Amino acid sequence: MVQALTSKPTILWVNGSFTPASYYATMAENVRSQGYEIVVDTLPSSARTPPEQPATMTEDADFFHDIAEKLADQGKDIVLVMHSYGGVPGTECSKGLSKADRQEAGKPGGIIRLVYLTCVVPDVGVPMKESVPPLPFIIGREDGFMEHIPEESAPYTFSDLPREEGIEWVRKMPLHSQVSFEGKLTYPGYKYIPSSWILCERDELLPPDFQRNCIELIEKQSGKKVDVYNFDAAHCPNISAPKELADIVIQAVAAA
């Protein structure tokens, strides 16, 4: 059944690297408490462990494409919310799933907006590893996975938490696929689907100027303004400010 016009869209969350779904649990509960459906799952690139084969960015994109397609087939309008690295596979996974594309094909539901939370958003043909500032606290391993150096990562990844608390969160992070950072964007979903940006003003990992450059790229490619929501938080507000993050996400979703 196609959703009624008054129904709320479903939020599909695409995580950042090194972050399991559990890292977003408190934020998600705050979203649900305000009457929104939210789907959060773990990227294959963060879910696998040695000796499994590290997942590619394309596998991450395919994983979330399948989830989004199933939601759309249920007649649901979807707002895709992406965090950090999630901006790459999230953008990629939107191919063929926009509300307009599905209507043209006689199908219900679809993605009505992309919301980027302090994301990496490259141009077509550019991988994440060539798009971000240097990240010396992330090291590659011989098994094809990567890990953070906790004491060096915490001041960037969790810069708005007390140092020791940030270090503990880094230590609990899973490994992440090295090859996933090499995957090149092939589909500029932001060119075709309206976009919003939650700009984390105290982010030390993807600083505000980096985020503004990504916003400029989207606006140049799409020819449309990006709705920007300034947020007084660092790179992982899902941990440091989950309630406030839920509120600003809902603000962006409600405007979709």
Automatic annotation (TrEMBL):
Give the source's domain of life in one word: Eukaryota
Give a single Pfam family match: Abhydrolase_6
Question: Gene3D superfamilies, from UniProt?
Answer: alpha/beta hydrolase
Q: Where is the AB hydrolase-1 domain?
A: 11-247
Q: Extract the PANTHER family matched here.
A: AB HYDROLASE-1 DOMAIN-CONTAINING PROTEIN (PTHR37017:SF13), AB HYDROLASE-1 DOMAIN-CONTAINING PROTEIN-RELATED (PTHR37017)
Protein name as annotated:
AB hydrolase-1 domain-containing protein
